[in-house]
Amino acid sequence: MEVAQPLNVVLGAGTTDYPGWFGTHLETLDITSPRDWENLFAPDSIDRLLTEHVLEHLSETECEVALAECFHYLKTGGLLRIAVPDGYRRDAAYVEEASPPRDGHQVLFTVDTLVTLLERVGFRAVPLEYFDAQEEFHAQPWNEADGFIKRSVRFDTQEDFKRGDLFYTSLIVDARKI
Length: 178
Prior knowledge:
By secondary structure, this protein is of the alpha/beta class. It has one domain (8-177): Vaccinia Virus protein VP39 (Rossmann fold), CATH 3.40.50. It contains four helices and seven strands, in the order ββαβαβααβββ. The protein has helices at 34-40, 60-73, 92-98, 111-121, and strands at 8-10, 22-23, 46-52, 74-84, 123-131, 137-139, 171-177. It has a seven-stranded mixed sheet. Strand 5 (123-131) and strand 6 (137-139) form a beta hairpin.
């Protein structure tokens, strides 16, 4: 089997199709199943993983299992970019859209809970876009070549979620295997 170099994988790709990225779906990779990972990848073989609005559909226990698998299959120095709904964004339309059990959501992460979970698994986590506990928005530059996030301050234009200059925002975190 020929493997792309670098190996970039989208977890729960849905309809996304990014050049240079291998898209997975539940039918090909249940991210909570060690056997599924083992059937597709070798440990320490993946350069980048991207998951946009997937983890919130898992229980906290399933998230921890999935993140441990991500860590196991990423190369040292590899990057996992995560986007999930932001539990510290509290405007009514956003909360209604993002809160469990809406659309099968099971967890509503905050920057604090997601970073803690990632660090518990072994990652070094760097928040890129997020609301803090005082509901102040923070964003730092990030390279979309490391994983494109549509639902971000730079790329989203959903008018239903407009709040000042912001549209729909996600909690976006880069997690690096060190």
